[in-house]
Amino acid sequence: MSGGFAVLLDDVEDLAQDLARFALADAPASCSDRDASGSDGDDRPPRPRGADIVRVAPSTVAPPERPLTSTPPRVILLDDPGSCADAMRELIARGETCAVDFEGVALSRTGAVSLAQVAPPNGPVYLVDVACMGAAAFDEGRLGELLGAQHPLKLVFDCRGDADALHHQFGVRMRGVFDVQVAFCLKKDKDHGGKRGAYLMGLRKALKECPGLDDEARHELDRVKSAGASLFAPELGGSYDAWTKRPMHPDLIKYAAADVTYLHHMHRAWRVFVGEKKMAAVTERRMRERIESPEGLEQGTEAAKRRGSRREKFF
Questions:
Q1: Residue 206 domain-assigned?
Q2: 254/28 Cα distance (integer angstroms)
Q3: Exposed end of the chain (fewer CB within 10 Å): N or C?
Q4: Residue 117: beta bridge partners?
Q5: Read out DSSP for 32-83?
Q6: Mean pLDDT, residues 192-214
Q7: How far lies 28's CA from each of 61, 80, 137, 226, 290, in Å?
Q8: Cα(5)–Cα(1) distance, rounded to whole angstroms?
Q9: What is the pTM of this model?
């Protein structure tokens, strides 16, 4: 198999079978086992890469928004630069808003980035295997080009740690970013008369209030997040190294895909709480402050408690 494979989020058994076939039949023994042409040993011609790829000028005008659906999107794993470049080229050309997230170990300038998730409205969800490709995912794979362009708009949830890791490890500076965490906190300010609490609220809390989900979908989403967290969260008996193991566990794939799938729903419902220019300014400031801080910022709940409670003032 050259490039990615698709799975349906609502079918774990088929997903596990696909992953097993990928690991035992189609995948090389390791990332380095691919030949220099980028093929998996078949007779197909190699994909173009790097300077051979024709650059497509990104659209400066977003296309009309499509209605969002509640149908789980396809998930496509991109584990070689050629496949990644093909997918990123299409996303840049289409110009639709993309939800973006990253997984890894202590995401920061010193942590490890293992996976990048990129999803246009209604999918597919692209899982970019940074653990396998390394810097090539951002260069030949053109992920850096997508992240660094003003268009299309990128939806993230808490841009700070991601921006720190991308800039210091891969030389990528994100632009054109809408931080959904900011919109969610401003929503909570309005809901509670400015008393949302001392700490910034994370994605797990935001997902619990994600608009457009019925009780059944919300229960399934919570199950997906709990199952995935149990594999990598040390306090739940997991290990962050789970993000580096290949093939990826089906529950981690579902977890990663859920993070970006619902950012679109949140963005459309909560963007009314902050103007476009204000969001651009506060997002740029949050990223710049983290990138330019002398030592970054220690991550995690315990680290936040040691720093003392601080209610971030966005404006």
A1: yes
A2: 23
A3: C
A4: 101, 127
A5: GGS-TTS--SSSSPPPP-GGGSPP-PPPSSPPPPPPP--SPPEEEEE-SHHH
A6: 79
A7: 41, 12, 18, 31, 38
A8: 8
A9: 0.76
Q: Do residues 28 and 40 make contact, with C-beta atoms less than 8 angstroms apart?
A: yes
Tens digits of residue pLDDT in 49-99:
433 444 445 555 567 877 787 677 899 999 999 999 999 999 999 999 999
Residue type at 176 in one-letter notation: G
Which one-letter amino acid corresponds to residue 8? L
Nearest to 15 by CA among 202, 271, 224, 307: 224
Q: Cα separation of 212 and 214, whole Å?
A: 7
Range of the domain at 146: 6-33+68-301
Contact (CB, 8 A) for 112 and 244: yes
Our count of domains for the chain comes to: 1
Instruction: Calculate the CA 21 to chain-centre distance.
Output: 25
Q: Residue 220 belongs to a domain with what CATH number?
A: 3.30.420.10
Domain assignment present for residue 314? The answer is: no
